[in-house]
Amino acid sequence: MKTELTEAEEQWIDEWLTLINKMPQPLMLMIDAESADGSVGVYLPPGDANRKAAHTRWINRINGHLGQFPEGDGWLLSNVDGWHFGKGNPTVVSSPSYGVNGACSSHSDDYEDHYCQSVMIPYGQVPQGYEWLSDLDSNLGSRDTKLIISGT
Length: 152
Description:
Shape: flat
Oligomer: single chain
Strand content: 35-45%
């Protein structure tokens, strides 16, 4: 599904990508699997324990940009497969069933079909020794989903 972007959305995405590409070294972005909200975290690797003014300036700039998220039907989502700007209404299908071990369910969605721009960011456990500096507001906009529950 190809969705048309507004001029404001295109400009916002361009600036978002520019800021990500200008992230000062040795900072790392990661989606912590243990985070309750799935935020994109900014981390400083071990051995580089000196937070620099450039790190703080970059974090403030990207947070400022995230705060200017364009109005409309676009949304920003961090997920196990990266950080995505998308549009439209994803469909989530939930199917409860019973098996030999009792009740179970399966879920699937089509979020990927609605992604307009993605930034690949690692998802998982933050490596030992990395220092957390900040979380970036990673889930923005209005993301209405269509939930379909299929029978047993």
